[in-house]
TrEMBL record:
InterPro entries: Glutathione-S-Trfase_C-like, Glutathione-S-Trfase_C_sf, Glutathione_S-Trfase, Glutathione_S-Trfase_N, Thioredoxin-like_sf. It comes from Corallococcus terminator. The keyword Transferase applies. CDD domains: GST_C_8, GST_N_GTT1_like. It comes from the Bacteria. This is Glutathione S-transferase family protein. One of its GO terms (molecular function) is transferase activity. Residues 89-209 form the GST C-terminal domain. PROSITE patterns: GST_CTER, GST_NTER.
Length: 214
């Protein structure tokens, strides 16, 4: 049985965007059952967990002696087995993989910087000075992405792991109204989030938080 790590609890600003969501979603799309290993800060720091994830973060993926970390690598591993997430034809598959990297390497870097300023350092002097440039970079990337998306439903016409990762990256902006400036991108994100597999993944991440209350 596949096992993934996730947090027992995170503050409300992180609930629904913790990176195990990507893995849960990919597993749901692929129809692969999994169990969860819920961890707390003490487990994160343990030698045993560091063996699985050198940085003590979530998610970890384990199956039959194979342990993987990095959400992008895990989603790729799951997607490689399944046509729902990666087309079988070589060119289509390569293009979908390109979008996976674009989500994590060209968009998330900027989006995460903004989230870190807003959620972890809003009152710091350096953050106030730096934020306008970071917001500008995010806006530029969103516009460029919207231009490329055009009137397509998905980045490559059909849903792939590239859309899955892109959606989870765009969700990180939920504390802002930046996506409102790009209505087609906002609609794209909502289209991906409407997938039943996403809804199941989100509910599964939220379950332990809700059980604990707040
Ligand atoms: N690049 C890593 C990032 C993982 C990551 O940032 N995980 C966060 C939760 S979303 C975490 O575990 N934070 C706690 C920490 O860094 O101590 C991945 O995509 O798996």
């Amino acid at each position: 049985m596949i096992r993934i790590s996730a947090f027992k609890w995170v503050p409300p600003f992180a609930q629904g965007v913790v990176r195990d969501l990507r893995v849960r979603w990919a597993l749901e799309e692929a129809g692969l059952p999994y169990e969860e290993m819920l961890i707390d800060p003490q487990a994160q720091a343990s030698t045993d967990y560091r063996e699985l994830q050198p940085f003590g973060q979530v998610p970890v993926f384990e199956e039959e002696g194979l342990a993987l970390f990095e959400s992008g690598a895990i989603v790729f591993h799951i997607a490689s087995r399944n046509e729902v997430l990666l087309p079988r034809d070589e060119a289509g598959r390569a293009r979908a993989i390109t979008w996976m990297f674009a989500a994590l390497n060209s968009i998330e870097i900027h989006v995460q910087q903004l989230a870190e300023i807003d959620l972890f350092a809003p009152d710091k002097e350096w953050a106030k000075l730096h934020r306008p440039d970071v917001e500008k970079a995010v806006r530029r990337r969103l516009k460029e992405l919207a231009v490329r998306l055009g009137d397509r439903e998905y980045l490559e016409g059909r849903f792939t792991a590239g859309d899955l990762l892109m959606t989870t990256v765009l969700r990180i902006l939920r504390h802002t109204d930046l996506l409102d400036s790009e209505p087609t991108l906002k609609a794209y994100k909502e289209r991906c989030e409407a997938r039943p597999a996403f809804q199941r993944a989100l509910a599964a991440q939220m379950k332990p938080f809700e059980a604990r209350g707040a």
